[in-house]
Each structure stands twice: as C-alpha cells, then as structure tokens.
Amino acid sequence: xxxxxxxxxxxxxxxxxxxxxxxxxxxxxAIDVNQIKEEIQAKENEFADTYNAGVMKNIGYFxxxxxxxxxxxxxxxxxxxxxxxxxxxxxxxSKGNKISFTTAEVFVAKDGEQVVEIGNYKVVDSTQVxxxxxxxxxxxxxxxxxxxxxxDMSASELPNK
Length: 161
Description:
Helices cover 34% and strands 35% of the residues.
C-alpha cells in the first residue's frame, strides 16, 4: 500500500510539474507609435505634394485592393481606379488650390501590421483663403515594410463641399 501511495504521489507530482510549467512566449518587438505617426504623416505630405503639383501618379500610397469612399460619390475600388478617379477630379478640385493633411492620431495594432489614422485636411486658394476643410480616417496595412492605404473616407466640415 505504501508503494502504491508513493507511486501515486510521484506521478501526481510529475503531472503537476508538467502542467505548471509555462511555455515562455516570444517577446514582441516594441512598437514606436510616434515613429509610425511620423511615417504616416510623411506619406500624407507626399500625397499632398503630388496632388498639389497637379500630377496624380502612383506614389505607393494605395494598396492594390484599396477602397476609397469619396464624398458625395460611390466607393472607388482598386489602386488604379482610385488614381484614375483622382486624375479626373484634379482640375476641378485643386486648380489653384493647395491641400494639406495633418495626422492627429494613430492607433497601431499590437503587431504593427495595421494602423488607423485620424486626421484633418485643409484646402486653401492661392491667397490662403480656406476653401474646404474636414476630417478623415484611413486604415493602413503594412506590406514589405511599408504602409499602404487600404480604406479611407473623409467628411467636409463646410456645407455643400
């Protein structure tokens, strides 16, 4: 009986030891939210500079399967379709005007692979008079070490804009 009790105690102890051993999880790389915010702001600045130059081209802003939700229009799907949409509206929207974007906040996924940006935009004419302003949200995804816009939408703060 003592022998059975001893074996049971040993087996129970071994099982308890195995169950209580916690497998160490790999430590995730620290995410620098400020650095990501600066990276996203740089993308917005490049987009504004390209748009303000009156030349809409592929600058690596949109993901291939991006969807943009323009104000007072149907969604535009796909990078090439978005570029064509912007090209077709560049004269009516930006002629003599300049747009700027300000990244207000970024919400970064734990793995850093997705970022939601909340920002605002301003459009001014050649005399710096405000023509339009509003807010936007963009979902960025990381691919090959760079962020690309996957979804975006904006809302004007001014009536009928």
